[in-house]
From TrEMBL:
Highest taxon listed in the record's lineage: Bacteria
Name of the molecule in the record: Tyrosine-type recombinase/integrase
One Pfam entry name: Phage_integrase
Similarity annotation: Belongs to the 'phage' integrase family.
Transmembrane regions listed in the UniProt entry: none
UniProt entry keywords in alphabetical sequence: DNA integration, DNA recombination, DNA-binding
Annotated SUPFAM superfamilies: DNA breaking-rejoining enzymes
Length: 210
């Protein structure tokens, strides 16, 4: 049921996100990344390990990640070292790397999963002809986060998108490179996305000697 903002009934309604933490989610540290990997390996969750590794490397939004097809990631019998897709939100192409850890976990998952190049990498558990939903992906991330003792409200699917970008930025200070990797159309969006502030900028500048 929909109310007008001017209706008396609307004045007492509680917003759907009341009490929820809003704003950017934290990126994971390298220690937290390995803690989650250890948890997934220990629990023998091969699909989730592949999903986690690919999310970190690809830096894709959740809607693009869950819609990846096997053909996007494989070339013959091998997992590609680089892949490219068209982003749903922007309609712009973006390329991403697939590092060895991610290639290994994807190979193990696809060996179990089977399927053709037209099939989704991560199928829905309800209908295997469809892809994993973004809602289910978000629930999985919450589960991983809580499994290593972190607060789910501080992290989310965007934490995975931000993680490698944040690590690269801290190591290089190259915002233009991060813009390209994230597929942002404007560098201002990348600055906001990374949460770059004057303190962070000065810290990078202090590390650079001329």
């Amino acid at each position: 049921m929909t109310f007008s903002q001017f209706d008396p009934a609307a004045q007492s309604r509680v917003p759907w996100n009341f009490g929820a933490k809003i704003g950017p989610k934290r990126p994971f540290t390298q220690k937290q990344i390995w803690a989650i990997r250890f948890f997934l390996d220990r629990e023998r969750r091969i699909r989730d390990r592949a999903l986690f590794d690919l999310a970190i490397d690809s830096k894709l939004r959740g809607c693009d990640l869950v819609e990846l097809k096997i053909g996007n990631l494989v070339s013959g019998p091998d997992i590609r070292k680089r892949a490219a897709i068209m982003q749903r939100k922007t309609g712009r192409p973006v390329q991403f790397e697939i590092a060895k850890d991610a290639r290994d976990s994807l190979f193990a998952w696809l060996k179990l999963r089977g399927g053709s190049v037209e099939d989704y990498v991560f199928p829905s558990r309800v209908d295997h002809s469809r892809h994993l939903s973004t809602r289910q992906y978000a629930r999985l991330v919450d589960e991983w986060v809580e499994a290593i003792g972190l607060r789910a409200e501080d992290y989310g699917t965007h934490s995975l998108r931000r993680t490698k970008a944040s690590i690269i930025y801290k190591a290089t200070g190259n915002i233009r490179a991060i813009q390209i990797l994230l597929g942002h159309s404007k560098i201002e969006n990348t600055v906001r996305y990374l949460g770059v502030d004057i303190e962070g900028a000065l810290t990078l500048a202090e590390k650079t000697e001329i």
